[in-house]
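Input.
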Amino acid sequence: MSLFHSQRPHPPPIDPSAERLDVLKRFLDELRKATGDGSAKRQAGTKPPWHNDPEHLPAIFSHLRRYFQGEKVDPTSKAHPMVHVAWRALAIACTETGNVPNKDL
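Output.
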């Protein structure tokens, strides 16, 4: 048996729309943890608005380091460190593509 040609049966077909909704719900549930933690810090005045935060890239490396050192739960947010990596990566992507709040908000 080849590594690439498994003899395991294929799972039943999944409704693509239902799968997308399921994945997005699960991702949103996780991202809420990191968002709540950062929002509390921004409200306290200890962090800049997410779309003006110059620390996204350094924070990605910090969360990766913690993950590789064995951390599975952020002590403050209770989120997995990779959730924080994803959150920061999305913040960079939104900022660089202009997907940020209107200055009038």
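The chain is about 55% helix and 0% strand.
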